[in-house]
Amino acid sequence: MPRWEQGSADRLTKAALELFEEQGFENTSVVEIADRARVTTRTFFRYFPDKREVLFAESDRIRTALVQAILDAPDVTEPLQVITTILAEFDWSGLGIAVQRRRHSVIAANPGLLERDLIKQNDIAVEFIQALRKRGVEESTARLAARVGIQVFAAAYAQWVEKDDGADLRKLTDAAMALLQTLVPPDRAAPGPVE
Amino acid sequence: MPRWEQGSADRLTKAALELFEEQGFENTSVVEIADRARVTTRTFFRYFPDKREVLFAESDRIRTALVQAILDAPDVTEPLQVITTILAEFDWSGLGIAVQRRRHSVIAANPGLLERDLIKQNDIAVEFIQALRKRGVEESTARLAARVGIQVFAAAYAQWVEKDDGADLRKLTDAAMALLQTLVPPDRAAPGPVE
């Protein structure tokens, strides 16, 4: 959306977050969100198809930027690291870390929002796989690198928003990858070529 | 549900699958599913809360059995392998591999069903994490082992149902784990103890 329209969308997101925290997602109506943001219901629906989507205002832009980063990566011979690095280096702060933290809690506490979040995460995985395939990565490798990479990053991201200690997302992601190394059994024999 | 009631539930699942294949998930009503299974709509709702759930009739039983297997595992010092082994050795054939294959296609093709499937997968992950915690596995390790283990298995399961070559799910899961070994960067230094 044009920059001059961003104000209303941001206000709607913040208003929705406040109301979901105060009275719960199920008990909040689009009319209340619009009122709190001082816009009409009609304006709400110009930005968002429903009250779930108001917490995912940036998801298309984020997904597009991440996919482009895969397509632009100088080297994809280590696809799992490409995925986790791109995710860890992305600017997730958006409306600010405090808002991200509140958003994370509200989503985790509401099945309707969690469902939407899982679908968005799956959409990202599907497009990551396609992007890796375009870069010449073999199908099974692309699938596993995208799916596992997202889980490694998600573990770090959860720590990032749950803790209030100013930890660095990049370092937390590296730590999650180091932990994964300890979990994967040692590579007993050199693997054959992957078809 | 008692065994003597299983017949109607199975018939409803098979009827729903046929109708979703023939005319799509969105275009199919509960009334049509009940008619095809030769039961009343009221009987449908005794078994399932909505038309999505009819393809997930076994999900509670499956999740409970898998969680119990984690609690009963003789050794959880390699939690990622515990997760993938338990998933790979479970009897997924249910109504038969042919039905599983059709179910997998129908879910993948319908966003409404895919959403429900993702929620079920997340429920399994959450309970796996709790079960590993009960077995004394540290929090970050439990999270990563459960989430990554499910992805490794899901990659193998997708191959199992997508290919019609009688491949063994256990071998496909081992192959997915071997592929993950090649993707995770070598463990440059011995990791310190995980808190």
Short description:
The first copy, chain A, is mainly α. Chain A is about 70% helix and about 0% strand. Chain A is elongated.
Give a topology summary:
The structure is a homodimer of 195-residue chains.
Chain A lengths: L5 H18 L6 H7 L4 H7 L11 H14 L6 H11 L7 H13 L1 H24 L4 H24 L6 H15 L12
Task: Describe what you observe in this structure.
Chain A contains nine helices and no strands. By secondary structure, the first copy, chain A, is mainly α. Chain A folds into two domains: 3-54, Arc Repressor Mutant, subunit A, CATH 1.10.10.60; 58-183, Tetracycline Repressor, domain 2. The longest helix of chain A is centred in the middle third of the chain and has 24 residues, at 111-134. The model of chain A is unreliable at 190-195 (pLDDT under 50). Chain A binds chain B through residues 78-81, 111, 114-115, 118-119, 122, 140-141, 143-145, 147-148, 151-152, 154-155, 158-159, 176-187, 191, 194, and chain B through 78-81, 111, 114-115, 118-119, 122, 140-141, 143-145, 147-148, 151-152, 154-155, 158-159, 176-187, 191, 194.
